[in-house]
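Example record

The entry below shows one chain as it appears in the dataset: sequence first, then structure tokens.
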Amino acid sequence: MSVKKYCEQNNLDQDKVFLMALARGAGILPTVTAFTTYMTEIKDDRIVCTNDKLNVFNKEIPFSSFQRAEFGIGSGQLWLQCVVDGNEFVFCSPRKSWKSPAAKLLLEKIGEKTEILSMKEYEQYTGKLFFIYMFK
């Protein structure tokens, strides 16, 4: 389901919902494949994650539990590699999602609790010269 459709069905602000593809983080959210997707609503003090197929509804992760965050690129994807309550929590999203107001809000909120390292990776991945950067 698209973010737009999800927001329409749940009466949510599209600028506060981020599509997260979880790679690692089973200690925090259930995963069944390498890219288990969650619709993630960004609140002032937490994210609220939902995956209808896994029957995970409104799983809250407080921003205060983020202890570390760093961007990295692998397999042509931009990954945010985090430590949340001592557990590894790694996710990516489509490039369009990383460029969205929701992504900027998510990074702002995480950045209030811990420094996000390698922001240069984010800037290059979301920048105009993305294709040149990816094939260097």
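Notes for this example: The mean pLDDT is 91. Residues 15 and 100 are 7 Å apart (CA to CA).
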